[in-house]
Protein backbone atom coordinates (compact mmCIF):
# COMPACT_ATOMS: atom_id res chain seq x y z
CA UNK A 1 0.00 0.00 0.00
CA UNK A 2 1.34 3.46 -0.90
CA UNK A 3 2.04 6.30 1.49
CA UNK A 4 2.73 4.32 4.62
CA UNK A 5 5.48 4.25 7.18
CA UNK A 6 7.06 1.10 8.52
CA UNK A 7 5.72 0.90 12.07
CA UNK A 8 2.18 0.66 13.44
CA UNK A 9 0.89 3.82 15.11
CA UNK A 10 0.23 4.12 18.81
CA UNK A 11 -1.68 7.38 18.37
CA UNK A 12 -4.52 7.40 19.64
CA UNK A 13 -20.93 24.47 17.02
CA UNK A 14 -18.32 26.81 16.07
CA UNK A 15 -17.92 29.58 18.55
CA UNK A 16 -21.24 31.26 17.99
CA UNK A 17 -21.14 34.92 16.94
CA UNK A 18 -20.76 37.07 20.01
CA UNK A 19 -19.44 34.27 22.21
CA UNK A 20 -16.29 34.99 24.16
CA UNK A 21 -13.42 32.59 23.63
CA UNK A 22 -13.03 30.19 26.53
CA UNK A 23 -9.73 29.85 28.39
CA UNK A 24 -7.55 26.91 27.39
CA UNK A 25 -7.86 25.52 30.93
CA UNK A 26 -11.51 24.73 30.25
CA UNK A 27 -10.43 22.12 27.73
CA UNK A 28 -8.82 20.20 30.60
CA UNK A 29 -11.84 20.72 32.82
CA UNK A 30 -14.15 19.43 30.12
CA UNK A 31 -12.56 16.00 30.10
CA UNK A 32 -13.76 14.80 33.55
CA UNK A 33 -17.17 16.35 32.91
CA UNK A 34 -17.47 14.50 29.61
CA UNK A 35 -16.30 11.24 31.19
CA UNK A 36 -18.83 11.59 34.03
CA UNK A 37 -21.60 12.27 31.52
CA UNK A 38 -20.56 9.24 29.48
CA UNK A 39 -20.64 7.04 32.62
CA UNK A 40 -24.17 8.24 33.35
CA UNK A 41 -25.13 7.41 29.78
CA UNK A 42 -23.69 3.90 30.12
CA UNK A 43 -25.61 3.36 33.38
CA UNK A 44 -28.79 4.41 31.60
CA UNK A 45 -28.00 2.07 28.73
CA UNK A 46 -27.55 -0.98 30.94
CA UNK A 47 -30.63 -0.04 32.99
CA UNK A 48 -32.60 -0.07 29.77
CA UNK A 49 -31.22 -3.49 28.86
CA UNK A 50 -31.99 -4.84 32.34
CA UNK A 51 -35.59 -3.72 31.98
CA UNK A 52 -35.83 -5.42 28.62
CA UNK A 53 -34.49 -8.65 30.11
CA UNK A 54 -36.88 -8.47 33.08
CA UNK A 55 -39.84 -7.90 30.80
CA UNK A 56 -39.17 -10.56 28.23
CA UNK A 57 -36.44 -12.84 29.50
CA UNK A 58 -34.05 -11.55 26.85
CA UNK A 59 -33.15 -8.14 25.53
CA UNK A 60 -35.08 -7.83 22.29
CA UNK A 61 -33.23 -6.20 19.38
CA UNK A 62 -35.65 -3.24 19.38
CA UNK A 63 -35.06 -2.64 23.10
CA UNK A 64 -31.29 -2.79 22.61
CA UNK A 65 -31.46 -0.34 19.71
CA UNK A 66 -33.67 2.03 21.75
CA UNK A 67 -31.31 1.94 24.73
CA UNK A 68 -28.26 2.58 22.54
CA UNK A 69 -30.09 5.41 20.75
CA UNK A 70 -30.79 7.04 24.14
CA UNK A 71 -27.13 6.57 25.09
CA UNK A 72 -26.05 8.50 21.99
CA UNK A 73 -28.66 11.19 22.66
CA UNK A 74 -27.20 11.73 26.13
CA UNK A 75 -23.71 12.09 24.68
CA UNK A 76 -24.96 14.62 22.15
CA UNK A 77 -26.45 16.81 24.88
CA UNK A 78 -23.03 18.08 25.96
CA UNK A 79 -20.25 18.12 23.38
CA UNK A 80 -16.87 19.50 24.53
CA UNK A 81 -15.87 19.81 20.85
CA UNK A 82 -17.21 23.36 21.11
CA UNK A 83 -14.10 24.25 23.09
CA UNK A 84 -11.91 23.01 20.24
CA UNK A 85 -14.00 24.94 17.72
CA UNK A 86 -13.47 28.14 19.67
CA UNK A 87 -9.74 27.54 19.97
CA UNK A 88 -9.61 26.81 16.23
CA UNK A 89 -11.40 30.06 15.48
CA UNK A 90 -8.84 31.96 17.53
CA UNK A 91 -6.00 30.26 15.64
CA UNK A 92 -7.69 31.05 12.31
CA UNK A 93 -7.96 34.75 13.09
CA UNK A 94 -4.65 35.28 14.88
CA UNK A 95 -1.56 36.36 12.95
CA UNK A 96 1.21 33.77 13.28
CA UNK A 97 4.28 32.28 11.63
CA UNK A 98 7.24 34.00 9.96
CA UNK A 99 4.82 35.92 7.71
CA UNK A 100 2.84 37.11 10.76
CA UNK A 101 -0.40 36.51 8.85
CA UNK A 102 -3.81 35.10 9.72
CA UNK A 103 -5.52 32.27 7.85
CA UNK A 104 -8.41 34.50 6.85
CA UNK A 105 -7.27 34.44 3.21
CA UNK A 106 -7.10 30.64 3.11
CA UNK A 107 -9.04 29.26 0.16
CA UNK A 108 -10.86 26.08 1.18
CA UNK A 109 -12.63 25.78 -2.14
CA UNK A 110 -15.29 28.48 -1.94
CA UNK A 111 -12.93 31.42 -2.33
CA UNK A 112 -10.32 33.08 -0.09
CA UNK A 113 -11.55 33.39 3.46
CA UNK A 114 -14.88 31.62 2.92
CA UNK A 115 -15.32 29.00 5.64
CA UNK A 116 -19.09 28.52 5.71
CA UNK A 117 -20.02 25.30 3.90
CA UNK A 118 -16.45 24.51 2.83
CA UNK A 119 -16.08 21.25 4.76
CA UNK A 120 -19.22 19.82 3.13
CA UNK A 121 -17.49 20.12 -0.26
CA UNK A 122 -14.17 18.47 0.64
CA UNK A 123 -12.10 16.70 -0.60
CA UNK A 124 -11.89 18.47 -3.96
CA UNK A 125 -9.37 19.43 -6.64
CA UNK A 126 -7.47 22.68 -6.04
CA UNK A 127 -6.01 24.43 -9.06
CA UNK A 128 -3.13 26.07 -7.17
CA UNK A 129 -1.69 22.74 -6.00
CA UNK A 130 -3.02 20.53 -8.81
CA UNK A 131 -4.04 18.02 -6.13
CA UNK A 132 -7.22 16.65 -4.67
CA UNK A 133 -7.08 17.75 -1.04
CA UNK A 134 -9.08 17.09 2.11
CA UNK A 135 -9.39 19.65 4.90
CA UNK A 136 -6.20 18.67 6.72
CA UNK A 137 -3.99 18.70 3.63
CA UNK A 138 -5.51 22.02 2.56
CA UNK A 139 -4.80 23.53 5.96
CA UNK A 140 -1.18 22.43 5.55
CA UNK A 141 -1.09 24.36 2.27
CA UNK A 142 -2.49 27.51 3.89
CA UNK A 143 -0.28 27.31 6.97
CA UNK A 144 2.84 27.00 4.82
CA UNK A 145 1.97 29.49 2.05
CA UNK A 146 0.16 32.18 4.06
CA UNK A 147 1.91 32.03 7.42
CA UNK A 148 5.26 30.69 6.21
CA UNK A 149 5.39 27.84 8.72
CA UNK A 150 7.59 24.96 7.50
CA UNK A 151 5.58 21.88 6.58
CA UNK A 152 7.72 19.71 8.83
CA UNK A 153 6.63 21.87 11.76
CA UNK A 154 2.98 21.80 10.74
CA UNK A 155 2.78 18.00 10.55
CA UNK A 156 4.98 17.36 13.61
CA UNK A 157 1.93 17.28 15.88
CA UNK A 158 -1.10 16.27 13.78
CA UNK A 159 -2.99 14.59 16.64
CA UNK A 160 -3.68 15.71 20.20
CA UNK A 161 -2.36 13.88 23.24
CA UNK A 162 -3.11 14.17 26.95
CA UNK A 163 -0.16 16.51 27.37
CA UNK A 164 -0.37 18.58 24.20
CA UNK A 165 -3.23 19.73 21.98
CA UNK A 166 -2.86 19.79 18.20
CA UNK A 167 -3.40 23.17 16.57
CA UNK A 168 -4.36 21.62 13.25
CA UNK A 169 -7.07 19.52 14.91
CA UNK A 170 -8.47 22.68 16.51
CA UNK A 171 -8.54 24.33 13.08
CA UNK A 172 -10.33 21.24 11.74
CA UNK A 173 -12.93 21.59 14.50
CA UNK A 174 -13.57 25.23 13.64
CA UNK A 175 -13.84 24.75 9.88
CA UNK A 176 -15.98 21.61 10.14
CA UNK A 177 -18.34 23.34 12.56
CA UNK A 178 -18.95 26.05 9.99
CA UNK A 179 -20.63 23.44 7.76
CA UNK A 180 -23.12 22.26 10.38
CA UNK A 181 -26.51 21.93 8.70
CA UNK A 182 -25.04 22.19 5.18
CA UNK A 183 -25.76 19.47 2.60
CA UNK A 184 -22.78 17.32 1.63
CA UNK A 185 -21.75 18.08 -1.97
CA UNK A 186 -18.30 16.60 -2.57
CA UNK A 187 -17.48 17.20 -6.26
CA UNK A 188 -16.68 14.34 -8.63
CA UNK A 189 -16.47 16.37 -11.85
CA UNK A 190 -12.77 16.54 -12.65
CA UNK A 191 -10.80 13.50 -13.79
CA UNK A 192 -8.47 13.79 -10.77
CA UNK A 193 -11.44 13.79 -8.39
CA UNK A 194 -12.79 10.66 -10.07
CA UNK A 195 -9.34 9.05 -9.87
CA UNK A 196 -9.14 9.82 -6.15
CA UNK A 197 -12.55 8.25 -5.59
CA UNK A 198 -11.56 5.13 -7.54
CA UNK A 199 -8.29 4.83 -5.60
CA UNK A 200 -10.16 5.26 -2.33
CA UNK A 201 -12.55 2.48 -3.29
CA UNK A 202 -9.63 0.16 -4.10
CA UNK A 203 -7.95 0.94 -0.77
CA UNK A 204 -11.22 0.41 1.08
CA UNK A 205 -11.47 -3.17 -0.16
CA UNK A 206 -7.71 -3.89 -0.14
CA UNK A 207 -6.91 -6.84 2.17
CA UNK A 208 -3.49 -7.14 3.78
CA UNK A 209 -1.62 -7.33 7.06
CA UNK A 210 -1.31 -10.18 9.57
CA UNK A 211 -5.10 -10.48 9.91
CA UNK A 212 -5.83 -10.17 6.17
CA UNK A 213 -8.12 -7.25 7.01
CA UNK A 214 -9.43 -4.38 4.93
CA UNK A 215 -11.63 -1.40 5.75
CA UNK A 216 -14.43 -3.45 4.23
CA UNK A 217 -13.90 -6.24 6.78
CA UNK A 218 -15.74 -4.11 9.33
CA UNK A 219 -17.56 -1.58 7.16
CA UNK A 220 -19.14 -3.33 4.17
CA UNK A 221 -22.11 -5.08 5.78
CA UNK A 222 -25.22 -3.55 7.31
CA UNK A 223 -26.55 -4.14 10.83
CA UNK A 224 -23.20 -5.00 12.42
CA UNK A 225 -22.09 -3.73 15.82
CA UNK A 226 -19.07 -4.03 18.10
CA UNK A 227 -19.79 -3.30 21.75
CA UNK A 228 -22.00 -0.17 21.72
CA UNK A 229 -20.79 1.05 18.35
CA UNK A 230 -22.56 0.48 15.08
CA UNK A 231 -20.30 -0.54 12.22
CA UNK A 232 -21.83 1.42 9.34
CA UNK A 233 -21.64 0.10 5.82
CA UNK A 234 -19.50 2.85 4.31
CA UNK A 235 -19.83 1.42 0.81
CA UNK A 236 -23.51 2.40 0.79
CA UNK A 237 -25.02 5.87 0.65
CA UNK A 238 -27.06 5.43 3.85
CA UNK A 239 -24.13 4.04 5.85
CA UNK A 240 -21.65 6.67 4.67
CA UNK A 241 -24.14 9.46 5.30
CA UNK A 242 -24.79 8.33 8.86
CA UNK A 243 -21.09 7.92 9.69
CA UNK A 244 -19.18 10.61 7.83
CA UNK A 245 -21.50 13.47 8.76
CA UNK A 246 -20.62 13.05 12.45
CA UNK A 247 -16.83 13.29 11.97
CA UNK A 248 -14.57 14.91 13.09
CA UNK A 249 -15.63 14.24 16.67
CA UNK A 250 -14.86 14.54 20.36
CA UNK A 251 -13.83 11.13 21.75
CA UNK A 252 -15.28 10.86 25.28
CA UNK A 253 -13.17 7.85 26.29
CA UNK A 254 -10.00 9.79 25.43
CA UNK A 255 -11.12 13.27 26.40
CA UNK A 256 -9.77 14.56 23.08
CA UNK A 257 -11.05 15.97 19.82
CA UNK A 258 -10.24 13.74 16.84
CA UNK A 259 -10.02 14.56 13.12
CA UNK A 260 -11.02 12.23 10.29
CA UNK A 261 -7.35 11.74 9.47
CA UNK A 262 -6.95 10.41 13.01
CA UNK A 263 -9.93 8.10 12.47
CA UNK A 264 -8.29 6.60 9.38
CA UNK A 265 -4.95 6.34 11.19
CA UNK A 266 -6.58 4.44 14.04
CA UNK A 267 -8.37 2.09 11.63
CA UNK A 268 -5.01 1.26 10.06
CA UNK A 269 -3.63 0.59 13.55
CA UNK A 270 -6.47 -1.78 14.39
CA UNK A 271 -5.87 -3.66 11.14
CA UNK A 272 -2.16 -3.88 12.09
CA UNK A 273 -1.30 -2.02 8.90
CA UNK A 274 1.72 0.30 8.73
CA UNK A 275 0.88 3.82 9.82
CA UNK A 276 -0.34 5.97 6.91
CA UNK A 277 1.53 9.17 6.15
CA UNK A 278 -0.47 12.11 7.48
CA UNK A 279 -2.57 13.81 4.79
CA UNK A 280 -1.14 11.52 2.10
CA UNK A 281 -2.77 10.83 -1.26
CA UNK A 282 -3.86 7.45 0.12
CA UNK A 283 -5.73 8.84 3.13
CA UNK A 284 -7.20 11.64 1.01
CA UNK A 285 -8.45 9.06 -1.50
CA UNK A 286 -10.10 7.02 1.26
CA UNK A 287 -11.71 10.19 2.58
CA UNK A 288 -12.93 11.04 -0.93
CA UNK A 289 -14.55 7.61 -1.30
CA UNK A 290 -16.42 7.84 2.01
CA UNK A 291 -17.25 11.56 1.81
CA UNK A 292 -18.60 11.37 -1.74
CA UNK A 293 -20.72 8.37 -0.74
CA UNK A 294 -22.26 10.66 1.91
CA UNK A 295 -23.39 13.27 -0.65
CA UNK A 296 -26.92 14.48 -0.17
CA UNK A 297 -26.90 14.20 3.62
CA UNK A 298 -26.89 17.13 6.02
CA UNK A 299 -23.58 17.53 7.79
CA UNK A 300 -24.08 17.36 11.54
CA UNK A 301 -20.60 17.52 13.05
CA UNK A 302 -18.41 17.84 14.89
CA UNK A 303 -19.89 14.84 16.62
CA UNK A 304 -19.27 13.07 19.89
CA UNK A 305 -18.20 9.45 20.20
CA UNK A 306 -17.87 7.00 23.09
Give an overview in words.
By secondary structure, the chain is mainly α. It has two domains: 48 residues; 225 residues, Cytochrome c-like domain (Cytochrome Bc1 Complex, Chain D, domain 2, Orthogonal Bundle), CATH 1.10.760.10. It contains eleven helices and seven strands. It has a three-stranded mixed β-sheet with strand order 6-5-7. Strands 1-2 form a two-stranded antiparallel ribbon. The protein starts with 24 loop residues before the first helix and ends with a strand. About 8% of the residues have low confidence.
What are the key terms here?
mainly alpha; two-stranded antiparallel sheet; 2 domains; globular; 306 residues; 7 strands; three-stranded mixed beta sheet; Cytochrome Bc1 Complex, Chain D, domain 2; single chain
Write the layout of secondary structure elements.
Layout: H1 25-56, H2 61-76, H3 81-93, E1 124-126, E2 131-133, H4 135-145, H5 151-154, H6 167-177, H7 191-205, H8 215-219, E3 224-226, E4 229-231, H9 237-244, E5 249-251, E6 256-258, H10 260-270, H11 281-293, E7 303-305
Parallel strand pairs: 5-7
Antiparallel strand pairs: 1-2, 3-4, 5-6
Amino acid sequence: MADVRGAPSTAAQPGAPGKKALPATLTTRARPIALAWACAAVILLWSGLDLAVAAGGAAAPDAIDAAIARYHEMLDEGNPAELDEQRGEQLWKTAAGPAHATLERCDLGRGPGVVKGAYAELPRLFADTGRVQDLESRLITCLTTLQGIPESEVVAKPFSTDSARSDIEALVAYVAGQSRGVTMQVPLHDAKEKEAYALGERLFFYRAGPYDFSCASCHSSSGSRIRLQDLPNLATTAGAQRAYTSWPAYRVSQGLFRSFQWRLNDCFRQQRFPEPVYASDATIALTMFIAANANGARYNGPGIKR
